[in-house]
Amino acid sequence: MKIPQIVSSFDDPFVDAYRNVTDADLRGRKHLFMVESEMVVRRLLKTNWNIHSVFLSPNKFERLSPFLESCEAPIYVADVNLMTEIVGFHIHRGALAAVHRPPPKDISVDNLFNILRDKENISLLLAERITNVDNMGSLFRNAAAFGVDALLFDNQCCDPLYRKSIRVSMGHTLSIPWAIADHWSATLQRLKSELGVTIIGCETGDQAIPLWDVAGSHRRALVMGEEKAGLSPSTINLCDSVAEIPMQNAVPSINVAVASAVALYDFFRRDSFDEG
Predict the structure, then answer these.
(1) Are strands 95-100 and 51-56 parallel, antiparallel or unpaired?
(2) What is the pTM of this model?
(3) 198-216 confidence digits (pLDDT tens)
């Protein structure tokens, strides 16, 4: 069994990375992000992400021991009450891990294109101006559920590596490739010209057709917009089709997380389900 370092003091310097954990100060702090909950930590341990350390309650250490054997990062264990005092919020889940942020090149558009270039079939989920961390996490969870190859965001979206976003995603932020595009319109044009991707904008309006009327494609992307404003005009102009989920007139739109699940199921999975 992996031997942990026991933390018995609030001032223990080994757990400095976990002090006063908040989403606001973690972005870029010591180049780390935080992962929370037993399930997400377990999924993290199965990946090749560069783990800084793991911080667990005695109970969670026992439960996670089989997954910790191959972990080369330090393992710290403390009473739940002491953990709560150190991290600054009620840590009832008893499981945290600090992870090194990926270098910029690993979440670059060029890197993502290299991953996708040789694939015969491509299914992508794109999003612009998604600033709610719960919605961001849900996009990843939905993408995992419906077999999306990768996600792509504009630089106005919130950080996919926020602690809550990762937790809502059930850890799938750590398993599905993603990238942030600094030049959004240019990147959409590259998807079309370099990878032959058909882009379907998910939006309501006079130009929208029912999603199920959009022709299928072996290389396709759904692009979702911010809930209030929707997709930007420049993005809509770059879409090959604009599609909507037909709904009752009294409900003109639904939450972007829910909309993405419906759209991904209908457009990405209907063919494979029909074949099965």
Answers:
(1) antiparallel
(2) 0.91
(3) 999 998 877 888 888 888 7
On the question of pLDDT at 275 being above 50, the answer is: no
User: Tokens standing for 184?
Assistant: 């959004």
Tens digit of pLDDT for each residue in 152-199? 999 999 999 999 999 999 999 999 999 999 999 999 999 999 999 999
